[in-house]
Amino acid sequence: MKIAIDFDGTIVEDAYPEIGRPMMFAFETMKELQKQGHQLVLWTYRRGQPLRDAVAFCEEHGINFYAVNESYPGESMEGISRKIDAEIFIDDRNIGGFLGWSKVWELLNADQPEMHFVDFEAHQNYKQEKSFWRKIFG
Q1: How far is it, in rounded angstroms, from Cα 22 to Cα 91?
Q2: Domain residue ranges in the chain
Q3: Phi first, then psi: what are they for 96, rounded to 5°?
């Protein structure tokens, strides 16, 4: 699975443009996710030297990202959306804020894929109508 992860406020405490202290269990969790075969994408507002500093900081802590601010290595961003093609986004700007790395680990390692979402039906953005026969026998 491709997982897009924000830097400031998610991997490290928010101290932009400086680099904050690592969030508890951030690097341990990301390393384990990589061991499971997940592709981690750094998806951050940073660019230029602050971005290079963030990537270097992560590399110093044992994380080499599959891609940085792109869906895959070498993607040309010219004329396309900056939104990353990923199945999961981990970010402190979620409604309700950052869940914490232990909760991220718990959700990503649940037995059922539906557990990736707090409200799976809301993620689908529609309600399936029951067929005529299901309404009768259903």
Answers
A1: 14
A2: 2-137
A3: 95, -10
Among 81, 62, 90, CA closest to 4: 90
Give me the mean pLDDT over the 77-99 stretch. 82
User: Is residue 75 very low, low, confident or very high in pLDDT (cuts 50, 70, 90)?
Assistant: confident
C-alpha 48: how far from chain center: 22
Answer whether the bond into residue 17 is a cis peptide, omega within 30°: yes
Structure tokens at 60: 């110093």
What local confidence, expressed as pLDDT, does residue 71 receive?
82
CA–CA separation, 131 vs 94, rounded Å? 35
Is the pLDDT at 83 greater than 80? The verdict is: no
Domain 2-137 is of which CATH architecture? 3-Layer(aba) Sandwich (3.40)
Closest CA to 90 of 112, 70, 105: 105
**C-alpha dist (Å) from residue 111 to 33, 86, 87:** 15, 20, 17
**pLDDT tens profile 99-116:** 899 989 988 887 755 545
- Long-range pairs, 72-75, Cβ under 8 A, ≥24: none
Calculate the dihedral angle through the C-alpha atoms of 11, 17, 20, 26, rounding to the nearest 10 degrees: 10
